[in-house]
Amino acid sequence: MTVTAKHVSRARRVCDLDAATAAAADFLEAVGVDLGSDSLRETPARMARAFAELLTPRDFKLTTFDNDEGYDELVLARSIPIRSVCEHHLLPFVGVAHVGYLPNSRILGLSKLARVVEMFAQGTQVQERLTKQVADWLTEELRPNGVGVVIEAEHLCMTLRGVQAVGARTITSTMLGTLRSDARSRAEFLAAARVGER
Ligand SMILES: Nc1nc2c(ncn2[C@@H]2O[C@H](COP(=O)(O)OP(=O)(O)OP(=O)(O)O)[C@@H](O)[C@H]2O)c(=O)[nH]1
Ligand SMILES: [Zn+2]
Known about the structure:
Layout: E1 3-8, H1 17-30, H2 38-41, H3 43-55, E2 60-66, E3 75-86, E4 92-102, E5 106-108, H4 111-121, E6 124-125, H5 127-142, E7 146-155, H6 156-159, E8 170-177, H7 178-181, H8 183-193
Parallel strand pairs: 3-6
Antiparallel strand pairs: 1-2, 2-5, 3-4, 4-7, 7-8
Helix pairs in contact: 1-3, 4-5
The structure holds guanosine-5'-triphosphate and zinc ion.
């Protein structure tokens, strides 16, 4: 079995924590938060570190294997936790991703299905783009017979504030290859993903 591994990373800009801390202090003052008390004094620096953590994509090692056994049925990781930040309000959206593929000549180390979701989730995002990026990336890297990605998420910008649609969840999906063109494969994927169930 041939194993290949390579380092995968997304482009990013340099994060200046000192500048972010000063800006966070200005921002909090401007929205009326009094930073004078002991418990709030460090808040701008914490806020800067927290956003740096949420917005910086994490690299990972992509490991793939030869599909020696010729396994050609669905491989699906369901309920992969996701957390991301909506690019309109900078508020989190959280939920789960169900990611599957129909192997061709290469199979993916299983944990990498969760790693790729995490890599694209980290940063500012919209759910539709995140869904498609994961599917396109798997297609590019594995040349599989099909890829399916479903994301179910709660956007705090629409549940905590604004319209306050408490409990609303948004479902997005991208199906490619056989999972898009063949109704039976697609139905099998959706049945295994059990969208809406925990
Ligand atoms: N399509 C899409 N929209 C998103 C996502 N995350 C947040 N949004 C939406 O982005 C939109 C931004 O719209 P605006 O009208 O400019 O923002 P707003 O005035 O704060 O809107 P309200 O949330 O309705 O108060 C809102 O409708 C959000 O619900 C996402 O992942 N995908
Ligand atoms: Zn938002």
